[in-house]
Amino acid sequence: MSEQGVAERTSAAAAESGSAPRKVVASVKEFVSAHGGSARAVLQPIGRAGVRITLVGSDGVLGDEVVADLPTARAVAAAAGVDVADGWDRELISSATPAPGHARKMAGWVANS
Predict the structure, then answer these.
(1) pLDDT tens, 17-37?
(2) In whole angstroms, how far apart are CA 76 and each of 2, 17, 24, 31?
(3) Is residue 111, in this structure, part of any structural domain at all?
(4) What is the pTM of this model?
(5) What are phi and psi of 16, to 5 degrees?
(6) 11: domain range?
(7) Is 35 within a domain?
(8) What's the confidence (pLDDT) of residue 98?
């Protein structure tokens, strides 16, 4: 079986069970610990790539992780003890304080065009 087929089956199994990848959970917990001890997450579907878990630490710093699907993203947030926001509301937006250069970094290759 191809690597893609294995990845698709693994993703489907994670979605059905709502399991959270250990490395992603550890990364989110590390982010929370480094940025004030709490964070809120916004789950944003990004097409075939999956779902971006955008984190806003209690100090306003932004972080993110990408997982296969919404059930996995919800499982990661639950396992890491992170509250999931309904979306980018006024309070959450005003609490985010991106570091200088953050937008350029997030733009990737587009920023250098």
Answers:
(1) 569 999 999 999 999 999 999
(2) 27, 12, 7, 13
(3) no
(4) 0.75
(5) -65, -40
(6) 3-98
(7) yes
(8) 79
